[in-house]
Amino acid sequence: xxxxxxxxxxxxxxxxxxxxxxxxxxxxxxxxxxxxxxxxxxxxxxxxxxxxxxxxxxxxxxxxxxxxxxxxxxxxxxxxxxxxxxxxxxxxxxxxxxxxxxxxxxxxxxxxxxxxxxxxxxxxxxxxxxxxxxxxxxxxxxxxxxxxxxxxxxxxxxxxxxxxxxxxxxxxxxxxxxxxxxxxxxxxxxxxxxxxxxxxxxxxxxxxxxxxxxxxxxxxxxxxxxxxxxxxxxxxxxxxxxxxxxxxxxxxxxxxxxxxxxxxxxxxxxxxxxxxxxxxxxxxxxxxxxxxxxxxxxxxxxxxxxxxxxxxxxxxxxxxxxxxxxxxxxxxxxxxxxxxxxxxxxxxxxxxxxxxxxxxxxxxxxxxxxxxxxxxxxxxxxxxxxxxxxxxxxxxxxxxxxxxxxxxxxxxxxxxxxxxxxxxxxxxxxxxxxxxxxxxxxxxxxxxxxxxxxxxxxxxxxxxxxxxxxxxxxxxxxxxxxxxxxxxxxxxxxxxxxxxxxxxxxxxxxxxxxxxxxxxxxxxxxxxxxxxxxxxxxxxx
Length: 541
Ligand SMILES: [Zn+2]
Ligand SMILES: [Zn+2]
Prior knowledge:
Layout: H1 3-19, H2 24-39, H3 44-49, H4 61-73, H5 77-86, H6 88-97, H7 101-111, H8 116-124, H9 136-147, E1 158-159, H10 160-173, E2 177-179, H11 180-183, E3 188-189, E4 192-195, H12 201-210, E5 214-220, E6 224-229, E7 234-238, H13 245-253, H14 256-262, H15 271-277, E8 307-311, H16 322-331, E9 336-339, H17 354-371, E10 375-383, H18 394-397, E11 402-406, H19 415-426, E12 433-434, H20 452-462, E13 465-469, H21 479-487, E14 492-495, H22 507-516, H23 530-535
Parallel strand pairs: 4-7, 8-9, 9-10, 10-11, 11-12, 12-13, 13-14
Antiparallel strand pairs: 1-3, 2-4, 5-6, 6-7
């Protein structure tokens, strides 16, 4: 068994535990372990056999035992049992109908059925009401939802990284292309779609239905199908004739409002040809939200990013050392990386005291001796106290190359108070950038009440940049807010807020979010060379 196969089994276990409504920490631990294993070059099976696998990050005794079982027997008993018990396609359909995993399984047992198809059949025969707990009202609701199946409505949007991963894998397996919300890099994706041109659509549809990601096909036409994933998320597949691929791709990419304004669309084999036929310049998918027929500006490109200005190390809650992060950033082709660990007021995790900051300076100097001419910058992610004071004294901040100011606790402050708090911090002469300004977590926490218009004014006066945080559950500023910031004349920074070497790979999410806000490279601080970054240090007045 190679590392990829082992990681796939752990991911499968995580998915099924998720379906079984297991503790989310457990499922996350399995997913993280799978991720670690995919990134390791040594054969995991060997590490397991020699008893050294726990030296890897995130692999504790529980996961060690599962890995041992998998390597020794070729299977994980619990996984096999869950696969038998859970009938993923049935649970997937249940999710889609708004039933929890346990309820789906109870229902299936009571009805003596095992698959999604048998469930549909039982419903059609009016047998649902024979199951305990299903009254006429519930039955009517389920029947109605089943009748609506061809027009699936996802319950919860997927985060961008998960959407890319899921749709990207399906597209790759079918030699197709990612379309839908992910191709527009929407911060939360609801419409998931793949377009795969084919003269033989039946074989593409058959391959789609057989994919491990698709647990049930809920609609099938000649050149179109909708499948549901294990999370109950619908994915649309389109298999147009090759000479219509461009037209199908544009339509499936959306947004609906953008597409509608271009209709009627001629048939075209690719998007370039389609835009030419419309006598329009090709439009990057990130800009296809509101109707637009103009010529797009030269947007920021990922390769124009010269360095990452926000990341963490083992000094706070990161998983890699200063040198490991620096080396990884250099390997990505960057010229610089700012280490911005937390300060003590962050609370939940370790934060750096003034003493720590100075000790970290030695480690950064040592890393720079190794990595030159690449430059590791001395930075900090400094908490903003509720009264607007910063969590480190000015004399410490004055030593640093790059200071991010961040609100962590107290996001729910009323608008005026929060805005005053942030404004106070931005007036500090050492602060360069405001991190994740709106404090949202996609699907979990709404944006805070911060008055961005006021923040833009202060940022402009003080020469402060605003961050576009690339963590997939943050993406903060959002595309819309980037656009507002740029209109106000404020500069932005594209950062990953990486907590691991792998986390540095989230830069495309930040860049795409900036592009959705129409960012051009000269408006983005970290397209500039190192000297320009260092020159942003403001002399204390
Ligand atoms: Zn933060
Ligand atoms: Zn951070």
